[in-house]
Amino acid sequence: QVQLVESGGGSAQAGGSLRLSCTASGYTYSNYCVGWFRQAAGKQREWVSLISSDNSTRYADSVKGRFTISKDKAKDTVYLEVNSLKPEDTDMYYCAATARTDACTGAPYWYRYWGQGTKVTVSS
Fold first, then answer.
1. What gap in Å lies between CA 24 and CA 113, rounded to an integer?
2. What is the pLDDT of residues 24-69, one digit of tens each?
């Protein structure tokens, strides 16, 4: 059974940092595209970042230069380091994976597997 579990969320002050983790079981990330998304209550899910099977990375303009995505294949874990946090970064953060390597984009409907999310709260 494929499962994704996020961790590492919490509360931080503006300008602070956190490291979010997404650990997979039931499969490995070797041939998958893995993305991070965020969503506030009552709002649409927003793409944040992704890392492809060949380790290429992309970031949304809103987080570029502040967030860093990486992975540890041996641990089947993808990380999202969130730095220079702003109050508008407050959201539930979700990781997701897709085997469609030809559709490794920020569009959430391409992703088959989703974690349950981890909360990030940023105060000013």
1. 10
2. 987 776 678 999 999 998 999 999 999 998 999 999 999 999 999 9
CA dihedral 8, 10, 11, 16 (to 10 degrees): 10
Backbone phi, psi, residue 19, to 5°: -125, 115
Neighbours of 24 (CB within 10 A): 21
pLDDT band at 1 (very low <50, low <70, confident <90, very high): low
Mention every residue, 6+ apart, whose C-beta is less than 8 A from residue 116. 5, 6, 94
Instruction: Kindly give, in sequence order, each residue whose CB lies less than 8 Å from that of residue 64, ignoring residues fewer than 6 positions away.
Output: none
